[in-house]
Specification:
Layout lengths: L19 H5 L5 E5 L5 E5 L9 H5 L1 H5 L1
Antiparallel strand pairs: 1-2
The structure holds iron/sulfur cluster (2 copies).
Length: 65
């Protein structure tokens, strides 16, 4: 069964825009996208993502939980 695309954040409070996930992604599947207030949030390109979950492991906010 195919694994799901990781969820980097479900609310904006769960992402500080540090770009660590963007930097670590071995497939360059993550892009940082400006929201309406000019803050950058990561977006995963599902067609490039290999579900390695490195982006989840590196995220400083998720590491706290
Ligand atoms: S799971 Fe892996 S390939 Fe997919 S976005 Fe995260 S780091 Fe990139
Ligand atoms: S590593 Fe976590 S906090 Fe940093 S940009 Fe990615 S999702 Fe946001």
């Amino acid at each position: 069964m195919e694994k799901n695309i990781p969820v980097l954040y479900s609310k904006k409070e769960e992402c500080c825009g540090c770009t660590a996930c963007y930097t670590i992604c071995p497939k360059k599947a993550i892009s940082m996208v400006d929201d309406e207030e000019g803050f950058q949030y990561p977006k995963i390109d599902e067609s490039k993502c290999i579900r390695c979950r490195q982006c989840i492991k590196v995220c400083p906010i998720k590491a706290k939980n």
